[in-house]
Amino acid sequence: VQLQASGGGLVQPGGSLRLSCVASGRTFNNNGMGWFRQAPGKEREFVSAISWNSASTLYADSVKGRFTIARDNAKNTVYLQMNSLRPGDTANYYCAAARRAWGSRGASEYTYWGQGTQVTVSS
Predict the structure, then answer these.
(1) Using one digit for the tens of pLDDT, what is the confidence trace for 48-100?
(2) Minimal CA–CA distance to 29: which of 72, 75, 73?
(3) CB 46, CB 34: distance < 8 Å
(4) 36-45: per-residue pLDDT in tens?
């Protein structure tokens, strides 16, 4: 089972990126999915989560209104559209599959983790 995150890169402040996370080895169509991030020297923090049917989404206050999570179960893929990026968004971004059908802010609720994709926001 693998979660492959991609789409990171270097972007200027105010720019946009779209992260993707593709599941292989099994489907997570009945599981909530989440994105977390970790900056150097900081603890991993919750970014966003989505329920199995996309009916429910969660966002950290720091990204609300700027980031949008979505999923395409037919493609076993979850996305994170990031707009109006700030230097404080610089981190390694991880996708994860929850043990339940809905997303959660708590990392302990996730059983599978991807390897991360680096996002750097700098001029």
Answers:
(1) 999 999 999 999 999 999 999 999 999 999 999 999 999 999 999 999 999 99
(2) 73
(3) yes
(4) 999 999 999 9
3-state secondary structure of 106: coil
Helical ranges in the chain per DSSP H = none
42, with CB counted inside 10 A (0-12, 13-18, 19+), is exposed
CB neighbours of 17 closer than 8 A, spacing ≥ 6? Answer: 7, 8, 9, 11, 82, 85, 119
Confidence of residue 26 (pLDDT cuts 50, 70, 90): confident
Place of tokens 């599978």: 112
For residue 49, CA distances in Å to 35, 75, 102 come to 6, 18, 8
